């Protein structure tokens, strides 16, 4: 299946149903009073994270999602039915952004997590709501409010503990094949990896971590060169980045300059991502003798001003790979993910007392002297249409 990590969609919540103006009329009860019911609330639009999905390809074709509007109120104090909600299922790791404001509405990081992205409109009030001791025949009602309408950008970001960085052909895919069951394509030409891939590294029966491999970066990636930097977002949730450096590039390029290019592109993309823990890993040491590899790695680290520990490995022959993985596992255990605050459930407001309906009732009271009377005229053609029942 094609990997799609971005999609734009339109979500429209349902409008609220209008209130009804109606009067009870039965045999021997000519003036039974108002009995117009309220409308129903409009349906909401929700996002739900589903671990069974791994791409946003469905939303490249289906781009509009509309919830049902609330039904109008009816006579005999019948309240309109609430509009049906719409639930949009997205892969775990999806970020939801409001394109109109640029606001990030939420990150879907857990299976079953739900996020309200468009709230349905409030229901309108029927004329029963406006009756009082001095207004026994109210002819007022209110209409439902429109539902929310938003243009959303969905961004899928892979959930991994470790992210791989490096130039094309630095050996990232070979490394992930060596430490996990993932089988990304490996070949001797640049940009063999075109889409991100994940691998699970199992150290023992109880310890494991997830590593993400993204396409290589080249100079000018921030301006769109190569495959650009659009895949760097998949590293934002990683706890540590492994910066793979080809210790002896086949094209004769300078490993120091290659490393500086990667660091520069990271800083252009995001200062937060550039500030993440980053480990230096020299790959392909099997192409030279041990002493030469150690001397060259030391020289590169000094040229970069690197003061921390660095690793020498060969992903192809798995030399030094196991020690690196155990150090990564230890780091992950010692640096757990900060628990996010539990999302607050939307407060349910009793419809009679919400602010919108308070305002509507207050506006009617201001016009009481102009609109209210003690009876009604069946031949009066002005004003609101009535529903009479026998």
Automatic annotation (TrEMBL):
Top-rank EC class of the record's enzyme: hydrolase
Classification via InterPro entries: G_OBG (IPR031167), GTP-bd (IPR006073), GTP-bd_Obg/CgtA (IPR014100), GTP1-OBG_CS (IPR006074), GTP1_OBG_dom (IPR006169), GTP1_OBG_dom_sf (IPR036726), OBG_GTPase (IPR045086), P-loop_NTPase (IPR027417)
Ranges where the Obg domain occurs: 1-159
Ranges annotated as spanning the membrane: none
GO terms of biological process kind: ribosome biogenesis
One Gene Ontology term, aspect cellular component: cytoplasm
UniProt feature, compositional bias: Polar residues: 129-145
All copies of domain OBG-type G, residue ranges: 160-333
A GO molecular-function descriptor: GDP binding
Keyword Nucleotide-binding: yes
Binding site for GTP: 166-173, 191-195, 213-216, 283-286, 314-316
Cofactor(s) annotated in UniProt: Mg(2+)
Cross-referenced SUPFAM superfamilies: Obg GTP-binding protein N-terminal domain, P-loop containing nucleoside triphosphate hydrolases
Task performed by this protein: An essential GTPase which binds GTP, GDP and possibly (p)ppGpp with moderate affinity, with high nucleotide exchange rates and a fairly low GTP hydrolysis rate. Plays a role in control of the cell cycle, stress response, ribosome biogenesis and in those bacteria that undergo differentiation, in morphogenesis control.
PANTHER family listed in its UniProt record: DEVELOPMENTALLY REGULATED GTP-BINDING PROTEIN-RELATED (PTHR11702), MITOCHONDRIAL RIBOSOME-ASSOCIATED GTPASE 2 (PTHR11702:SF31)
Assembly behavior: Monomer.
Name of this protein: GTPase Obg
Gene name of the record: cgtA
